[in-house]
User: Fold these one by one.
Assistant:
Number 1:
Amino acid sequence: MKHHRIIALIALLAAFPPLSTDMYLPAIPLLREQWEQPLMVVNLTLICFFVSYCIFLLVYGPVSDRYGRRRPLMVGIGIYIGASLLCAASTGIRMMIVARVLQAAGAASASALSLAMCKDLFNAGSRARIMAHIAVIMALAPMLAPIIGGWIIYWFSWQWVFVVQALMGLVAFIGVHGMPEPLKVFSRVSPARVIRIYARLMGNGRYTVLMVAMSLMVFPFFAFIAGSSEIYISRFGLSEREFGYFFGANALATMSGSLFFGRLSLHLRMEKIVTVSFAGITAAGLWMAIAPHHSPWSLTLPMGMISFFFGLCRPPTNNLILEQVDHDVGAASSMLVFTFMMIGSLSMGIVSLQWTDKIVVIGAMGAIVGGLTLIFWMRCKHFFLIR
């Protein structure tokens, strides 16, 4: 498979979570009315998706280290296609939650193994820039997904959102089927010893501490995902299509940050880029928390700043985390995305509670985690940069 095609395939696989959630977000207020459920219950279709996703991440990583990347990917994507069609056929909130859990079980194979494939195929010197390019391509998904979802709902119905996701899964399945196996050295560890792999990873202090610290940055990002439809549609009265444009603008900010890293990394050391990113997230969170909120822009502008710096720091921090391990890379990448998503699920649950002003809550999350992570980075970065 040609170089640009494998990068595009990895980007598509890595984009499964935003594609599986962001296309669906414009439908949440509609489902609240149609099924007469409160936001916390409807948001279980998001929260349970990510919890299931996290659990299955821990399965695909070590399995792929033993059996290769292709076969687990094909099984997972096949599950994803079937579950997407089941989501489209849902007639109530319980059926939708079950279908979303199954959809997440399939989607976990895609994003978990996309990171492992990066390390399989690219050397350490070029991997961070490759990750940045993939992040730019991948960022188009959350930018366009809610817009596409809003128009699908407008012209057809919310069920067709999941039909389109099934077609996306089919494209990925065909791509994985046609690629050569990227893993060259297979692990001999049996499935019964998987727990020992994760115990060994958790015993790697550099890897574990850095992974948890960097994953805290997702708090405001995932809170925005869970709360944005209620804020934009229910609070400010935007339509599903207008919501898609505002949400897409936030995704554009994330993509811009990743794109800017690709260029900035040629002139500035990685540790300085990370420092600036954490400071920027802290400042934007404070802005959102204390500014008045009378229009959609009171959320869009500071959240766009948070998302820009989030996109700027993800490629170098992901690369630095994986550089702390030499073996069991599939399991390490699974644990990384697991931690990322579990912390994100926690923030989604928090923001779904009956807060007086969810914008203030999201801003406070950004200010707190940004400030804490900045302090940690300034005091401890030398432990991770020198091995």
Number 2:
Amino acid sequence: MIYTVTLNPSIDYIVEVEDLGLGKINRMKRENKFPGGKGINVSRVLKRLDVESIALGFVGGFTGDFIKNVLENESVTSDFVQVEGDSRINIKLKSQLETEINGQGPAISEEKLDQFFYKLKQIKKGDYVVLAGNIPNTLPSDLYEQLTLWGQENGIHIIVDASGKVLLDVVKHRPFFIKPNHHELGDLFDVKITSIEQAIPYGKKLVEMGAQNVGISFAGDGAILITESSVYISNVPKGEVINSVGAGDSLVAGFVGTYVKTNNIETAFKVGVASGSATAFSEDLTKREKIEELLNQVKIEKD
């Protein structure tokens, strides 16, 4: 079983305005509301790939109800801890430029964190847990490190999609998969990375530090996967980028969901790249048909 963890879910409220005028009344050209949060995105794409998962995390209030209801309507299983306060709303404002205004989210008490830990006891050896997104400031800043160590000690495959110190601290505990983009990779080592060739030595360093598989995305310029024995370099399909939100999460879903079914790392990487691109070319998270349509465009070179 695959479990996804979203510590601070949201409603992503996407608003399009023809020509935004500050200090004036603006009328929306178009709007959409989607359940947000990186782990939730992974669960939604997994479902579209016919892979079951259970979404874990914290939700509250009428916004939390919206998140749960949409997941239920999409037949995505969830087992959230209910908290006081409302789950946040993140505004994605599209006009001449794209502007994001992200909410804070509810405070999470120690009692609610204990309830979350209790739910983790259902997870068994050999299962997969995706830890994705930022850690709210009301939770321990080393929570992902704690959970990755717990996974290492209990034979559970941990996938971490985070950045900065949070990501660097988990590496020594042998996560199954981590996925920095090239900007995040550069930040980890205080360098600027602009090409796949520059990224490979730093990806290998993360493997030497403990990560089992390192995926590095370069948006429209490709992606690489570094394992303990090989380097895989991929192009990305061509298309019009409509939506940058959730592309990385879709890559994670495609990779993990396919690996669980096939146990083939190269096939998993190929589907992951196609999934990320398919979401980038879609209004919301991708559908399965779009992934299948792009798969033939993905070419992998093994180094």
